[in-house]
Amino acid sequence: MTKINIYTINKISSSSPENKIILDYLKRLPWKIAFHELEIKGKFPPEKQKLLEGEMLLKSIPSNSFIIALDERGKSLNSAEFANIFEKVTQPIAFVIGGAYGLSDDIKSSAGLLLSLSDMTMPHMLARVMLVEQLYRAYTINIGHPYHK
């Protein structure tokens, strides 16, 4: 199984309802999934913030990773197509969820896949929940479990 890392900007409270849902799905998965929550200290104009976050993210992601950047303008996949990624990609996978201003162009150009979870903009906490649920769904699809009906 491919190692999965999820890189996010900003931290989520361990007591938040979203975190409880994430932990529930992570318990169900046999895959090794690590969260890396990164933060920029200080306030900057939006474009500078996005650039600094992109630099920090790229420095944190191992160079041999297949980067999947979550972006509302990315490619939409159904759950079976998403599950297929884990059958094909053999290198470590790095999912990237940007900050409030989105992802830098450097992150987008480094990504092997720009993926949309929805055409709608959603809070980063919910994007994390949706991603982890889809990881669990992909796992169940790939093993033939009836969770995905």
Tag the structure with descriptive keywords.
149 residues, five-stranded parallel β-sheet, alpha/beta, Alpha/beta knot, single chain, 5 strands, 5 helices
Brief overview:
It contains five helices and five strands. The protein has 149 residues and is an alpha/beta fold. It has one domain: 3-Layer(aba) Sandwich (Alpha/beta knot).
Task: Describe the 3D structure.
There is one protein chain. The chain is of the alpha/beta class and 149 residues long. The protein has a single domain, classed as 3-Layer(aba) Sandwich (Alpha/beta knot). 42% of the residues lie in helices and 21% in strands. The chain has a five-stranded parallel sheet with strand order 2-1-4-3-5. α3 links the parallel β3 and β4 (93-97).
